[in-house]
Amino acid sequence: MRDVPEHPDWLWSSPEPKRSYDVVIVGGGGHGLATAYYLAKNHGITDVAVLERGWLAGGNMARNTTIIRSNYLWDESAGIYEHALKLWEGLEDDLGYPILFSQRGVLNLAHSLQDVRDSVRRVHANRLNGVDAEWLGPDEVKEICPIVNVSPDVRYPVLGATYQPRAGIAKHDYVAWGFARAAAAMGVHLIENCEVTGVEVAGGRVQAVQTTKGRIAAGTVALSAAGHSSVVAATAGVELPVQTHPLQALVSELLEPVHPTVVMSNAVHVYVSQAHKGELVMGAGIDPYNSYRQRGAFHIIEQQMSAALELFPIFARAHVLRTWAGIVDVTPDASPVVGKTPVDGLLVNCGWGTGGFKATPGVGWCYAHTIAHGEPHPLNAPFSLERFTTGALVDEHGAAAVAH
Amino acid sequence: MPYTHDVAVVGAGPAGLAAAVESAEAGLAVVLVDAAGQPGGQYWRHYDESHARPGDHRGHHGWSAFTRLRDRLDVLTADGRIHYLPGHQVWLITRDDPGVFTLRVTRSFGGSAGRVGAGVSGGTETGPSRAVAARALILCPGGYDRQLPVPGWDLPGVMAAGGAQALLKGHRTLAGRRAVVAGTGPFLLPVATGLARAGASLAAVVEANGTLGWLRDPVGAMSVPGKGVEALQYAVLMARHRIPYRRRTVIREILGEDRVEAVRMARVDREGRLTGPDREVAADLVALGWGFTPSLELPLMLGVDTRKDVDGSLVVVVDDLQRSSVDGVYVAGEATGVGGAALAVAEGRLSALALSASLRRPATAAVVRRLQRAIRRGRKFAAAMHRAYPVPGAWTEWLAEPTLVCRCEEVSYGDLLRACHDLGAEDARTLKMLARPGMGWCQGRMCGFATAEIASCLSGRETTAEDLRSLSTRSLAFPVTLGELAALTDDTASDGTASEATTERG
Q1: How far apart are CA B146 and CA B153, in angstroms?
Q2: What is the mean pLDDT of residues A49-61?
Q3: Which of A135, A146, A250, B427 could serve as a FRET partner for B100 with CA atoms 20 to 30 Å apart?
Q4: What average pLDDT does the segment B439-449 reach?
């Protein structure tokens, strides 16, 4: 009865690695796959291998809460995130693959007068940058998301919210598979179960990577391994200003549609959406200690749920099915590092904190440009590694929406 | 912080009951947490004691062993030497301070019957969470029926063999009038005879293996002579109720529109390949059991070592004193390997004696040695039974593409095939991440074993302990409400480390 195809019809091929490539991308998550896709599509560079130590998109790509928005404070951030959002809006057609991008809007709640001032300022900044943004009072918040408790008699009363209507959520694994399929179709090699154990440097220039499948020579090595980028970069003698923390999330059982949008709250470190099948997806703030474990401390979730339930009393009887953690890599200014390193031919893309998923197509686009031209794209130029010595920081602690 | 007991025993089935009374009688301060409203576990499940009738124990084995343990429990509870929490379930165990385990417990779903009622406030579902602390743990979580998907197994009227039996033993409720009991193993017999005695007509007992399977390991099968008598009793009962017993036969499809109407059976060979023509039998109850799956949520949460047992289930590795690989964590009963109630009682007693000896309380060396011998014999017998009644190797050949494997997330066998062939999944964990089996309400308790087997079968290899482990590890032992999570108020849960201070708002 079982119908097993004779010749598996894979979404992407799974070749053995060649001995050398023009470009080796380290990390087969969303960013690595998007970078490979735009390298091939925008720049015609297809002698590319994406090396993944596990399976494609099994790291943070499988562990995030899939929120997409671009309402960051500074021009630099708004630039790259808004570029990403525009790409998201056409991505399904571009990839020829369904990604279930649902532009249901995002509310960022303000709970104190300082929150209100910061939020209003951010709305103005967003508008100047062409990002759709509105300031809403409590009643308007209630209109958009009726299940939010806007009563003033709570510990964290809702004094208002910023609202980005074009923001939303997408289906994370479909996004990864869409990029993987399209990249593989243009000749990119996607190599799973291949861990990079070292970067070979000679005369200040990158030569190759050492992997669990042997040495692979490369003209350019582009790191895209999130929290593990600093570990890989260290083997080339490059120190990255990145700290790694667990960031936890949980899902409930399936519920009827009750939550029409995405609600985030910086003050209580919580963000909630209802996924396509009906489960509530709730994210917490980062665990305050450094760790590479994909598991967080339980009391963090307990604290955040008590605050979350004050906002959403209706969820008190929803059951938690699973909790998990991703590891977020955080820089001192809560903005990413995308660009060159002191080693010639070694590029780095990391430090995205909680912003990685929403940036996927945008950073893929810019990182591919950086690889192809040896110089950053104007949108990622501000996110250089040198900014930590020059002092030209892009402080996004506020708009990152979760403390880190 | 709550009062710190010497030991927390989780589960009041054969193993847990024995462990709790033995520990308390050795002088330890014991807390006993059990999901059910009255003691006995699944094996000695019985009707609400406050409405007991003579004959409720009929069909129970070792009932006097149970009543003796229960009487000791009652005395020790009354004396305050056992803090007994019936109707409570442990959903999280952490080790917040070195040497102290914190157990988060909440009212269990089914815990309203029996002894719980009085004195415990709250609604029918769940009450407020509470914390229980102990310096050592004896985990006796037991197990539940192992299931294999088969076309139609999601129809109303299909249930686990243990479920049909639990309704009978715990609620005097017959789940159907015309029953088919199917799967493999000696457990099918008490279920079938129990249903027959309660008045159901048994259309068939369908056993996938041959009955002479124990000849594969005759020495092991003879190691517990009492079991032979038990088997004989069932044979007599089967004959008395004229129950047709079909060997080397499986249910290949369950038929019905809105509920079960019939089953389609077929003969199989030793590996489970279909050999004979189909044969249809009418039924309104189908009870399925393919051995048991130990409940490993709590042991795995604590990080104990596990292995794949003879029957293919994941079990906890313990030494000859029931110690797991984690300091202070003892495990007894089905969680260390499915082997029945007598073995579980011996393991429970031994773990209690070993723990009290480690606290420098006297334990009779002779008793310990006797228990160890009994456990070795019991293990040998269990292994022989597992070899006699294996899950047939070719069972996945009975599946059709539309057959649901994961019922919570509605993942079909076809979805799993596509995840393997289109997306390249080669192991259970990848399969889970790509196709979502085991990600729903039951978190893989029902479909975990089957998913692991399908993953390994599709990539042409044996199921490994790692496959099983990845589908058994759960961050919470069972789903709790967000309200309960939020309501936790003990000191360890509110040390205020949320990074308010590091938050800068731009």
Answers
A1: 13
A2: 91
A3: A250
A4: 91
Q: Does B482 touch chain A (CB under 8 A)?
A: yes
Judgement on whether residues A253 and A313 belong to the same structural domain of the protein: yes
Q: Do B424 and A2 touch (CB under 8 A)?
A: no
Inter-chain residue contact B506 with A395, CB threshold 8 Å? yes
From A328, A343, A377, the end of a domain falls on A328
Q: Give the per-residue pLDDT at B109.
A: 63
CB contact under 8 A, A309 and B486: yes
Contact residues, chain A, for B502 at CB < 8 Å? 288, 403-404
d(CA B137, nearest CA chain A) in Å: 20
Taking an 8 Å cut-off on Cβ atoms, the answer to whether A253 and B492 are in contact is no
Question: CA nearest A314: which of A152, A143, A149?
Answer: A149
For residue B483, give the nearest of A118, A173, A317 by CB distance.
A317
Distance from CA of B89 to the nearest CA of A (A): 15
Q: Are strands B329-331 and B130-139 parallel, antiparallel or unpaired?
A: parallel
Interface of B with A in 438-457 (CB under 8 A): 439-441, 443
> Band of the pLDDT at B490, cuts 50, 70, 90?
very low
The SS3 assignment for A121 reads: helix
Q: With contact defined as beta carbons under 8 Å apart, do B184 and B290 qualify?
A: yes
Task: Looking at the structure, tell me whether residues A179 and A315 fall in a common domain.
Answer: no
For the whole model, what pTM was predicted? 0.84
pLDDT tens digit string along B249-262? 999 999 999 999 99
A353 close to A71: Cβ distance less than 8 angstroms: no
How many domains, in total, are found in chain A? Answer: 2
Residue A76 within any structural domain of the chain: no
> Residue A362: which CATH number?
3.50.50.60
Residue A375 Ramachandran class (φ > 0 left, ψ -120 to 50 alpha, else beta): beta
Highest mean pLDDT among B125-139, B189-203, B213-227: B189-203
Residue A93 makes CB contacts below 8 A (sequence gap 6+) with: none
Q: Does A275 touch chain B (CB under 8 A)?
A: no
- On whether both A151 and A252 belong to a single domain, the answer is yes
Contact A322 B430 (CB under 8 A): no
Reported as a single tens digit per residue, the pLDDT across B207-262 is 999 876 666 677 777 777 777 778 888 888 888 889 999 999 999 999 999 999 99
Q: What is the pLDDT of residues A190-216, one digit of tens each?
A: 999 999 999 999 999 999 999 999 999
| In contact, B265 and B281? CB cutoff 8 Å | yes
Q: CA geometry: angle at A355 spanning A353 and A361, to 5°? A: 130
Q: Which residue of A has its CA nearest to B104?
A: A298
**Contacting residues for A348 by C-beta, under 8 A, at least 6 apart:** A222, A223, A229, A233, A238, A240, A337, A338, A339, A340, A341, A385
Binary contact (B440, A253; C-beta < 8 A): yes
Q: Is residue A136 part of a domain?
A: yes
Interface probe for A, chosen from B94, B413, B482 (most Cβ of A below 10 Å), is B482
* CATH (domain of A144): 3.30.9.10
Structural domain that includes position A372: 14-65+172-242+332-390
The predicted-structure confidence for A70-96, as pLDDT tens digits, reads as follows: 999 999 999 999 999 999 999 999 999
pLDDT-derived band of residue B494, with 50, 70 and 90 as boundaries? very low
> Which tens digits make up the pLDDT trace of A113-133?
999 999 999 999 999 999 999
Chain A CB within 8 Å of residue B417 CB: yes
Give the residue from chain B lying closest to A110, CA to CA: B505
Lookup result for tokens 């949108």: A379
In a domain, A176, yes or no: yes
| Domain end position, chosen among A288, A310, A328 | A328
Residue A239 forms contact with B (CB below 8 Å): no
Q: Which residue type is seen at B230?
A: E
Partner B contacted by A123 (CB < 8 A): no
